[in-house]
Amino acid sequence: MSYEVEHSTTPANTTGTSNTPRPPPRRPDLSSFFATLKEITPNPTETRARPYAVPVPGDISAAYRSLAEALNVMRHETGEHGFPVHDGRDEGLGNAATEDATGGAGLLSNMISILLREAEEPPREVEGVKEEFCDALDRVPTSSLKPTQACPICSNPFLDDPYPLVVRLPCHTSHLFDLECIRPWLRLRGTCPLDRTDFGKKERERERERVERLMKKGNGEGDEEDEEWDGMYG
Asked: Region (Disordered) spans which residues (predicted)?
């Protein structure tokens, strides 16, 4: 008996051929990214000693680089190699807004370039959406998916996953993504990768209006306005 057979080191298929389909590319581990994101994202349920303090730019840069590295792992799985280098030009997402929602390695490269650019000159605060936004996204039932439909980010056909969790972004009915792929991008940047609709900006505007109303109420301005209206109709 040979060493290989005795120690079970020979491949199970000795004919050299296999009908087993290749498993879909694995998704990268994003635990480090979400841990970093948690440190720089304000949590309304927590009492902060400095409620108006902003995250340190270096921490925000770390979040952008962490997600860029994770997407680069995914990009290698789709067959494109080499880490894109930001050359200082603001190229946005190319022509993604005018193309169909196929995505793939080209979209990933654009997304990574944007993250690297933001890492070099990070914003003062995280511009992404809250977790509640991701939780409220429309879920797409498996029965409505076609075998040819794939996630624009990871390029995996949705139906290759035995338990797909596909979501639709509010900007367009055809903008479907694996939730695992789109969630980190939305949490950090808050935009649709295909047409750059800024959901994060809309959330920030609503939050700013809410804070302004609370400040006016705390200063008694709201009560004065009510009294003025009452006087007009007295």
From this structure: 1-29, 200-234
